[in-house]
Hints:
Blueprint: E1 2-5, E2 12-15, E3 24-31, E4 39-40, E5 44-50, E6 56-59, E7 62-65, E8 69-74, E9 81-84, E10 93-100, H1 107-110, H2 116-124, E11 129-130, H3 133-148, H4 152-167, E12 173-174, H5 178-181, H6 190-202, H7 209-216, H8 220-231, H9 235-253, H10 258-264, H11 270-281, H12 285-295
Parallel strand pairs: 2-4
Antiparallel strand pairs: 1-2, 3-10, 5-8, 5-10, 6-7, 6-9, 8-11, 11-12
Amino acid sequence: MSQDFNPTTSVMREITPLSERDCFYIADRHKSAFDFPIHSHPEYELNFLTNAAGVQRTVGDHSEVIGDYDLVLITSPNLEHVWEQGECTGTDIREITIQFTSDVLPESLLNKNQFHPIRKMLERAQCGLAFSQLTIMKIYGRLDELTHQQNGFHAVLNFLELLYDLSLSEDARTLSSSSFARIETRSESRRVAKVQEYISSHFHEDVRLETLADLTGMTPVAFSRFFHKRTGRTLSDYIVDVRIGMAARQLVDSTDTVQGICYECGFNTLSNFNRLFRKRKGCSPTEFRENYQKKKIIV
């Protein structure tokens, strides 16, 4: 497996073994340690782990300790990710990695009604998508079978069925914030999408409820209820999440001061920024930057 480096961020750009003439690449490994640094690659990736309780998984600006089983789909070419040793003491960890390119499922196919669930899943996975243990147990047999499939054509059919089964999962959760992942969030509601576009362009300013309500032709009270019903979040929480994601991105990509980033991302006071950042990320902005720098070290 080759590697390259982005001179701006020092995040490794992985050159995967996937051949241009193959639909996907699959690797089935048994390991006892994690030493691969944080990285990104243009290929889509489905990564499965078992016997890995205690491993620290980072996808974008989201980090958490995983249990015995972990299954994550990533479809963004620039979303950094890494699995680190953490508190894991397992000596026989199984890791199954499937990498495939976007042209395996072209737009002409994803636009068909029968592929709509897969399309929605791939869109959500631009921020990283983690599946529950219940879903993992349902598809484990198919995943294991795929590693032993000798017939290439049947392997592709089994792979598509695996993606379809995953796309039906109702408890999959996104990991990284869309603003950190540099993904444009667009609701199926035209009014919500219009508001999201405005917030994305004006997050560093004083975003007022009345302005957003006017964009949708609704009263402020009606719009607040409408937005919460459609997104599952209050408007204020949504705006803070966008700003925090943008701030996290700048903490990783720049050497700007925390105070400077605070004001550039629309926060009025440094203390409020630190409080909200810690609440959402579990650490201070300075600690977040330092932790990311450590993940970039090659050993």
